[in-house]
Amino acid sequence: MSGQQESFLQVFVTFPDRESAARVAQALVEEALAGCVQIVGPVHSVYRWEGKIESADEWLCLIKTATSRYAQLEQRIRQLHSYQVPEIIAVPISAGSSDYLKWLSAATGETSSAP
Fold first, then answer.
1. CB under 8 Å to 29, separation ≥6 — which residues?
2. Distance CA 61, CA 106 (A)
3. What is the pLDDT of residues 21-41, one digit of tens each?
4. For residues 58-79, b (16+ Cβ closer than 10 Å) or e, as one string?
5. Is it true that the peptide bond before 42 is cis, omega within 30 degrees of 0?
6. Which of 47, 28, 46 is nearest to 38 (CA)?
7. Which residues have C-beta within 8 Å of that of residue 88, sequence separation ≥ 6?
8. What is the DSSP string of 92-105?
9. At a CB cut-off of 8 Å and minimum separation 6, what does 93 contact?
10. Which of 1, 31, 36, 109 could serve as a FRET partner for 76 with CA atoms 20 to 30 Å apart?
């Protein structure tokens, strides 16, 4: 991103089991849509679905990506996810280690070489 400071996101996505979380994480990193995906869980979710209060144990993925890759990332998650309406929430990374952000930039294809 010539002359501009690059921007990055952390994207939160929940999955019904560890295996599907790991499968999607692997695909996102292999395709350079994410630099890193951390899988946390299980977490217990309580939510309203189709007029009823539901609850479930889920696995949470914390996905680091470049803002410029978000649209492709979201599309790929939707293709791979089993939920009808998957949780896909992105928040900006407002600050971070310079070395880490350089690495994240390279890992998501935002620069031509790794740090």
1. 35, 36, 37, 107
2. 21
3. 999 999 999 999 999 999 999
4. bbbbebbbbbbbbeebbebbee
5. yes
6. 28
7. 11, 12, 13, 74, 77, 78
8. E-----HHHHHHHH
9. 7, 8, 9, 10, 64, 101
10. 1
Q: What are 102's two structure tokens?
A: 């350089």
The 10 Å Cβ neighbour count of residue 14 is 23
Residue type, 15: F
Query: How does residue 114 score in pLDDT terms, banded at 50, 70 and 90?
Result: very low
**pTM attached to this predicted model:** 0.89
- Report the half-sphere exposure of 6 (CA within 13 A, side-chain side): 22
Strand intervals (E) in 31-85: 36-49, 52-66
**Do residues 38 and 61 lie in contact, with contact meaning Cβ atoms separated by under 8 Å?**
yes
CA-derived radius of gyration, the chain:
15
